[in-house]
Amino acid sequence: MSGKAVDGIAKMPPPDIARKVKGLSDRAIAWIFIAPTIFLLLAINIFPLIWTIRLSFTNFRANRFNAEVKWIGLRNYERILSDPDIWQTMQATAHFLFWTLFFQVLIGFALAYLINKKFKGNDLWTTLIVLPMMLSPAVVGNFWTFLYQPQIGLFNYVVGFFSGVDPSSFSMIGSVNLAPWAIVIVDTWMWTPFVMLICLAGLRSIPDTIYEAAECDRASKWRQFWTITIPMVLPFLMLAVLFRGIENFKMFDLVVQLTGGGPGSITELTSINLKREAFEKWRTGYASAYAVILFVTIFGLASIYVKALNKVKER
Amino acid sequence: MSGFSVTEPSKRQKWISGLLVITYALVTLMPLLWIIATGFKSPSDSIAYPPKIVFQPTLEGYVNLFTTQTRITPNMKDTLPAPNNWYEQIVRDKNMVIAGPSRYGQRFLNSIIIGFGSTFLSIFLGTLAAYAFSRFKVPIKDDLLFFILSTRMMPPIAVAIPIFLMYRQLGLSDTYLGMILLYTAVNLSLSVWLLKGFIDEIPLEYEEAALIDGYTRFQAFYKVVLPQAATGIASTAIFCLIFAWNEYAFAVLLTSGEAQTAPPFIPTIIGVGGQDWPAVAAGTTIFLLPVMIFTIFLRKHLLRGITFGAVRK
Questions:
Q1: Where is the domain boundary, B102, B134, B165?
Q2: What is the extent of the structural domain holding A21?
Q3: Which chain B residues touch A207 with a CB distance below 8 Å?
Q4: Facing residues of B101 across strands?
Q5: Per the CB 3.0–4.6 Å rule, which of A163, A254, B28, B131 could disulfide with A141?
Q6: Distance to chain A for B94, nearest Cα, Å
Q7: Do both A158 and A297 map to the same domain?
Q8: Are residues A128 and A262 in the same domain?
């Protein structure tokens, strides 16, 4: 909108201004201003990406300098896609993604809906609720291991207090059944405010006049909720899901500190698995192919999703 | 609000929703308050069952966090001169002496240096690029902007492999410069997108007036646009700073000593004989507190920052 107008004016400055502009031309200034950014991104993002793609066709190992590096074509890719362990980590990631998004959308929307009732002091409480999401995920993961301690942890104690279960009888991060939920709980605790904030912006963007019109037409509150509130907030909600989805697909720091992928490899999400392959087993070529597959997956899913999001916005 | 409005929630609705939200807030803040409290407990109080809510506060955790200590025998203790200050006293009471400072202070300082260094660079480069994208006709602008955004979609571990190799070749592993450049590159996407939004909102008329008055483009940029964008630049800077401050994946893979930041270090804090939870909690508290304070300052721009300017409110 305003961008277009700006372009037009920048392209064609009124002649009297153009004459007075001294020094470099606009075009030169534009490139001088943009070039350093593009250069840095090329050096630290694109060049490494190309390098990763190249490595993915080799059997290179970063801990062995003298070993001969062989070009092995698509063998890495074949191996990854037929490896059952990888499918298991994909499954763990899918479980994590689905349930974190589910709870965060549910609780986040509910909170936003309640805050939008504009009770006294809602600003203060909103700010307090937001705090967890601004913190360092790795440090958060680390201190949650303390809260999850079976005997002494606050979490177990509170659960025990309300349910009557002995707090030392279960270990959230030590048990195969509970660990996948332990990471979902912490991620939900941390990131629900994010969804809440975006939903709140959506709710506040709905003009009062729409509700007033619905009220005149004698639409019930329930009906108003489903035909006005939900459709108007949906684009915002989908945006929140996009952001959280990408972030949680890449999830590394929080979970690696919390469970380290364990017990066994029950909570080994793709990024943790990738880190093991690349920096513990030093299968650099193999890990590079893995990284390429992950990147293509994220990028592909995100672009399909953005298309859907734009359709919803148009409606 | 005065008068009757159909959209204004009733008193009772406000009351109930307020109650629910405050309950949620208290529950969600409990882990944070617990960690802050644990920092002031003695090691035995921190692992007591049932968990202690009322306890005798002590600074032992903080002393343990910042010092390394060695155990002494009671006989030796008697031969030593009296402790000079309160923290030596705390350590002496446990039959220990302070051997020197711990590495926490150094790691914390690293976080500050790398955080501020990369924030400065990404704001500097980001403001220039954002101005150019906002005001000039740049060929393939949309593609470039999308390219800048897409760099944020890569999993850090995926990029870390070649960066690790590249840094090893260039001698940038475990150096301030390496980490600052890396965080700058990651933060640039955020700073360009956010700042472009802020600059787009500054009316073009101001600059045109300045140009007519005989300013050059550069002068118009730093005498007219920059002051107008100051609030936006400040809030973008805090977002960049918080990101660099919180980052873990690159830090743990590319640094080990010299340039290691606090996030990979805090989980490695172990006391003498078993995990020293008060020291870990103290380190966590000191590390998280600045972010909590900044978040309160950012209140107004929070939404914009976390959504790359997609939602402005």
A1: B102
A2: 13-55
A3: none
A4: B67
A5: A254
A6: 23
A7: yes
A8: yes
Angle between helices A84-115 and A230-249 (to 10 degrees): 140
Confidence of residue B3 (pLDDT cuts 50, 70, 90): very low
What would the two tokens of residue A122 be?
Answer: 């809602």
| Candidates A2, A42, A65, A117, partner chain B, best to mutate (most B CBs within 10 A) | A117
As to burial, measured by CB atoms within 10 angstroms (0-12 exposed, 13-18 middle, 19+ buried), residue A47 is middle
ipTM of the complex model = 0.89
Write the residue in B24, B252, B302 that is nearest to A197 by C-beta.
B302
- The answer to whether B71 faces chain A, any CB pair under 8 Å, is no
Q: Is residue B170 part of a domain?
A: yes
Say if residue A38 is in the same domain as residue A103.
no
Chain A residue nearest residue B168, CA to CA: A62
CA nearest to B282 within chain A: A143
Dist CA B255 CA B174 (whole Å): 4
- Copy the structure tokens of residue A97: 């993604």
Tallying the residues shown for chain A, one arrives at 315
Judge whether A130 lies within some domain. Answer: yes
- Whether the CB-CB separation of B94 and B219 falls below 8 Å is answered with no
Same structural domain, B111 and B95? no
Which region, left, alpha or beta, applies to residue A121 given φ > 0 means left and ψ of -120 to 50 means alpha? left
What is the count of structural domains for chain A?
2
Kindly determine whether residue B18 and residue A11, on different chains, have CB atoms separated by under 8 Å. Answer: no
CB nearest to A274's CB, from B158, B163, B313? B158
Q: What is the pLDDT of residues B70-122, one digit of tens each?
A: 888 878 877 888 888 888 888 888 888 888 888 999 999 999 999 999 999 99
**Which chain A positions have a beta carbon within 8 Å of B292's beta carbon?**
131, 134-135
In a domain, B291, yes or no: no
Pick from B42, B150, B161 the residue to mutate for testing the A interface (most A CBs within 10 Å). B161
Binding-face residues of B in 9-38 toward A, CB within 8 A: 9, 13-15, 17-18, 20-22, 24-25, 28-32, 34-35, 38
pLDDT grade for B69, boundaries at 50, 70 and 90: confident
CATH number of domain containing B203: 1.10.3720.10
Q: CB pairs under 8 A, 24+ apart, for B32-38?
A: B32/A131, B32/A132, B32/B288, B34/A147, B34/A154, B35/A143, B35/A146, B35/B281, B35/B284, B35/B285, B35/B288, B36/B281, B36/B285, B37/B281, B38/A146, B38/B277, B38/B278, B38/B281
Q: What is the pLDDT of residue B273?
A: 61
Integer Cα distance of B290 and A153 in angstroms: 26
pTM recorded for the entire structure: 0.89
Instruction: From B247, B268, B289, give the residue that closes a domain.
Output: B268
> Measured between CA atoms, how close is A115 to chain B, in angstroms?
7
B270 contacts chain A (CB < 8 A) = no
Closest residue in A to B24 (Cα) is A129
Is B210 found in the same domain as B74?
A: no
In the predicted model, what is the mean pLDDT of chain A?
87
